[in-house]
Amino acid sequence: TEALSIADFANQIGKSVAEILKYFFAQGLMLNQNVVLSEEQMAELALEFGFDFRKEESLTKENFFEALDASEEDKPEDLEHRAPIVTIMGHVDHGKTTLLDSIKNTNVVGGEAGGITQAIGAYQVKNKDGKKITFIDTPGHEAFSEMRSRGANVTDIVILIVAADDGVMPQTEEAIDHAKLANVPIIVFINKCDKPGADPERVKAELMKYEIVAEEYGGDIPFVQGSAKQKIGLDQLEETILLIAEMQDYKANPNKLAKGVVIEAHLDKAKGPVASILVKEGTLDIRDMIIAGTTYGNIKHMEDEHNKKVLKAGPSKPVVVYGLNEVPSAGDKFIVMNDEKMARTIAEAQAEKKLAAERQSNQIFSLDSIKKHI
Ligand code: GDP
Ligand code: MG
Description:
Layout: H1 6-13, H2 17-26, H3 39-48, H4 64-70, E1 80-81, E2 85-90, H5 96-104, E3 121-126, E4 132-137, H6 145-154, E5 157-163, H7 170-182, E6 186-191, H8 200-208, E7 223-225, H9 234-248, E8 251-252, E9 259-268, E10 272-281, E11 284-285, E12 289-292, E13 295-298, E14 301-303, E15 312-313, E16 318-322, E17 333-336, H10 340-373
Parallel strand pairs: 2-4, 2-5, 5-6, 6-7
Antiparallel strand pairs: 1-8, 3-4, 9-10, 9-17, 10-16, 11-15, 12-13, 12-17, 14-16
The structure holds guanosine-5'-diphosphate and magnesium ion.
Magnesium ion (MG) is lined by residues 96-97, 117, 140.
């Protein structure tokens, strides 16, 4: 970008010199119209006045994440293969955690309070040929259906798990809705086929009502039968995922600043805010500063699903990051923003926007409740 004086800049963005001087004055800076702006100051003004000096469309600190989604398409030659991102969805107790657990061959179920997944985690597994799959573990609890719907938006493939002894249940229906809204391929895993009351054919028949029709019945949805607990059908499930990944050809540009989504976050008494995030594009570097929803911070430490320190994370890689100044929300978008002042400005604007939206929804809520009481 060319060097511009305040007068030139004001002219370019269609604002008066006075407005710009006033902006700096409010920050304790007494400038005049001949002062040449630094690139950082221009970026700041661009955010303040809703004008992007690098792009045609306007990027503001309020529409920041939306505008990002709409911005820059990657060139085809910059795209590289990435691992498919898979979400397991289904009714509570149909075996989501057990399936994920069997896949990664560790023991999560035993450590869960009350058998319900308390937090969303994400893990990457590698098969014997070195092919990777990223799994997102969504909580089974009803209160998290909002997050599940967001989960469906980060995911490439949904595994719909249905217990063969129980059949289609309310949260199975919800999961089908989410998968259809997200418009992603579905694989049905009929679980608990080891149980005496298992009836996989009944499950297939029930799912037809939802237009989830197995290939053997003339549909195009792959079905896998097995047992998460007895580790039956897992190879076939993995093959099916990789087959879909091959056909869909998932790609991303790893050679740019990272963008992605917060999968889960909490406050650790000793370590401060901890966020489990999934990189969707670009490569996250341990030296980066990120802005995530209404919060930001320098990454102090980054680790993978095996609690091993990592220095970089590319597309489809889930990592846990430490160093945000507050706890973000699951489903928040994040992006690298290696300019602390701008990161703070945007984070604050996002927080204000969120607060305003909450106030408004509270108002709507109270209006509704008043009407009900008249
Ligand atoms: P989630 O709520 O969907 O995560 O379900 P869980 O993975 O917590 O499983 C609920 C219960 O079903 C647990 O007691 C599991 O041990 C059991 N379970 C899961 N998969 C199977 C299976 O394939 N066969 C049998 N017999 N039990 C299973
Ligand atoms: Mg679970």
